[in-house]
Amino acid sequence: MKRSEINAAIQYAKAIMIKHRFYLPKFAHYDLAEWKASSVCGRQEILQAHLGWDVTDFNLGNFTKCGLTLFTLRNQSPDNQKMYAEKIMVVQEQQITPMHYHWKKMEDIINRGGGDLMVRLYKRHPQTDLLDEEAELNVAIDGQYINLPAGGTVCLQPGQSICLPPMLYHSFWAEQGVVLAGEVSMANDDLTDNRFLEPLGRFSNIEEDEKPIHLLCSDYQQYL
Ligand SMILES: [Fe+2]
Q1: Which of 14, 37, 129, 221 is most buried (CB neighbours < 10 A)?
Q2: For the chain (length 224 residues), average pLDDT per consecutive 10?
């Protein structure tokens, strides 16, 4: 993914958040000089918990079709006692987050405003670890359980949320407009806890065609 695309996605996400009056912490707006001027001790938790911007095309090279813009607001780190994480995400219309499950993490995905958030679900086949094309499933939408066929899709309107237990395959995208989505979950580890159905990368390889406006959480190690 080109750095210019990442910069544009962050600018777009910031505009969507302003529109929905969702405010980010101060470090969301740091440029490289501000990061470098921040105290090493003071920023340690941000770096260790991988807080901050995260823009990915899942290394597939077509961000419009397959991609996600996220900001991790809180998460577990080796030095804090948090068992939880929170993210805010911008899901563009018809922009897919590909089918995956988490071995450990249980997460609620919340439509915080905008269009409809569509979530497709499959059970994991116990023998193949791929999609179980036949098994029905049962999920909670804001505490109310519904039954779905394999591959069934839930439409979350603004204000609605779905609880996704570990090991349940899910994929999502937006319809009827861009969606500002929240994620409230158990501790998050994107380095080890994503099982994608297709082989792809959780983080993109970056082509540095311009300077970063803001660092991604995956940039900290290289730049700071
Ligand atoms: Fe997920």
Answers
A1: 14
A2: 98 98 98 94 94 97 98 96 97 98 98 98 97 98 98 98 98 98 96 94 95 97 94
Distance from Cα 69 to the centre of ligand 1, integer Å: 13
C-alpha 204/C-alpha 185 separation (Å) is 23
Distance between Cα 39 and ligand 1 center (Å): 33
168: CA distance to ligand 1 center in Å?
A: 9
**Closest alpha carbon to 209 in 6, 10, 2:** 2
Q: Report how far ligand 1's centroid is from the alpha carbon of 100 (Å).
A: 6
**Could you give the domains of the chain?**
3-223 (2.60.120.10)
pTM of the model: 0.96
Residues 105-133: b if buried by 16+ CB within 10 A, e if exposed: bebebbbbbbbbbbbbbbbbeeeeeebbe
